[in-house]
Every structure is written in structure tokens, then in C-alpha cells.
Amino acid sequence: MKLSKLNLPVIKMLIAKDWLLFQKQLAAYVTAGIFALCLLGMAKGWSFYLGSLLLIIVLVAAACFSISTSLLAERKEHTLAFVMSLPVTPLDFYLAKLLGNLVTFLVPYLIMFIGAIAVIAFTPLPDGLIVFSTLIFGFVALAYSVALSVAMAVESEGWNTFAMIGSMVLINPFIMSLGQISEISKYVETESIVWSMPAVTILLTQVTASVVVLAVTGWVHCRKQAFY
User: Fold this and answer.
1) Does any domain span residue 227?
2) Is residue 228, in this structure, part of any structural domain at all?
3) Structural domains counted in the chain
4) Tens of pLDDT, residues 52-65
């Protein structure tokens, strides 16, 4: 599909519409994330664990909010009829929803990710946590990409909810699995930032899988003649 065939003005309007509708809620998530980072930065036992838990909860909530409000809620409220009245193709609609969801998720995600790295780097917390934290953020991004792709491709609310919740709850087993990899876990409580082969492999897998999942979903939509 050539870029010239895309209705870029309408795509931009649909993206802006999602951003304007959800910016207040996203600000609330960012505020909660900053509060979690403040607890994290206190570098004490109870505050560190509470801050870590709250930060993960906020990340997961922001991811689920972006998908459920922009896609699932619109289907339930039957607002697709209005979109179909606009001069857009299924690919235009897909790109608008994809980019709109990525914007509404990535803004709080990146703020919290950069904030977490800064907190670890400029507080008494061991710098070795940077690698561990980056892999956790990478997992959240991958889980979000999977849930978003399912929501874009499948109309069933039940399957969408299952994919969204199922992909996110796997974060606990993932964290536990990271703790079992000695090349990663042995540096967590040190001041050394070591990107071992397992850590690099996991991160590259997360990034590649996220891109591939979204690309495959886009390819499927390019072949569709209808919006869903």
C-alpha cells in the first residue's frame, strides 16, 4: 500500500481524537507512576517493594486502559458506524488505531521507563537493577503488543479480555524466571551494569517479537476489505 493512497489527514484526526479523549486519564497514570518511582527511590526495604509493585500495577493498568477504551469500548458502543462514514479504508482505520494506541500507551510507558532508570542511577539503589528493570519493561511492551494485535484482529470481547489479562499476568512468572538466570540475577545487587548474553538475547527477542506481532496484524489488515 503506497503512502499516497493513505488518507493522512483523517488518520491524524483519529489519532488526535484518541489522545484528547484519554489525556486526563493518562495524566493520572503518569502521576501514579511518579509516586511509585518516589517510593522506589527511597531505597528502603518496604518502600522499594511497595514502589516496585505499584509501578508494575500502573504499567499494566495503563496498557489495559489504552486497549479497552480505544478499541473494545468503541465496539461495544457501536461507534464504528461513524468511522465508516468517513473517507477511510480498512488500512487507514488500522493505522489510526494502531498509532493512536501506541501514542496513548507509549507516553506514560516511556515516562515511567526513563524515570525508573533515572531513579536507579541517581539513588543508592544498585545500578545492576537497570538491566533487570529494562527486561521487565520489555516484557510489558511485548505483552501490550500481543494484546493490542488480538484486539485489532478479533472481535470477540471474551478472547480480547483473555489475551489482555493473560499476557499481563505472565509478568510474575517472567520476573521469577529472570531470577533463576545466574548471568542476570548475580548482578542485580551490584553497581555493575552488565548486559550478559542471556539479557541481550531476551531483550532482542522482546523487541523483535513486538514488532513482528504488530507487523503481521498490519499485513492481515492490508488484505481485508472490511474494517474487522
Assistant:
1) no
2) no
3) 1
4) 889 999 988 888 88
